[in-house]
Write a structure and sequence with these properties.
Layout: E1 3-7, E2 10-12, E3 18-25, E4 34-39, E5 46-51, E6 58-60, E7 68-73, E8 78-83, E9 92-98, E10 102-103, E11 107-111
Parallel strand pairs: 2-11
Antiparallel strand pairs: 1-3, 3-8, 4-5, 4-9, 5-6, 7-8, 9-10, 9-11
């Protein structure tokens, strides 16, 4: 059974940092492109970043470019999202996904003073 578990969310002040983790069981992540999405209250889920399976090339949504970094640790079967210079508008539940088929339960990120 495939399971994705996100962790690392929390409450942080504007300008702060968090590192989200997405750890998989029942599947080997390095064979797949992995995406991070987020959903803020009252808004649609939006793509934030993704990392390819072939050459670890990365993609970032414009609003997070230069602030967020996606990476993977195949030995730990985990993908990370390092988030720096956080803004209140980054507040959302963050989800990782494999191809939009498998999703984690999400982790809450709240940026507030």
């Amino acid at each position: 059974q495939v399971q994705l578990v996100e962790s690392g969310g929390g409450l942080v002040q504007p300008g702060g940092s968090l590192r989200l983790s997405c750890t998989a069981s029942g599947i080997t992540l390095d064979y797949y492109a992995i995406g991070w999405f987020r959903q803020a209250p009252g808004k649609e889920r939006e793509g934030v970043s993704c990392i390819s399976s072939s050459d670890d090339s990365t993609f970032y949504e414009d609003s997070v470019k230069g602030r967020f970094t996606i990476s993977r640790d195949n030995a730990k079967n985990t993908v990370y999202l390092e988030m720096n210079s956080l803004k209140p508008e980054d507040t959302a539940v963050y989800y990782c996904t494999i191809g939009g088929i498998y999703w984690g339960q999400g982790t809450q990120v709240t940026v507030s003073s």
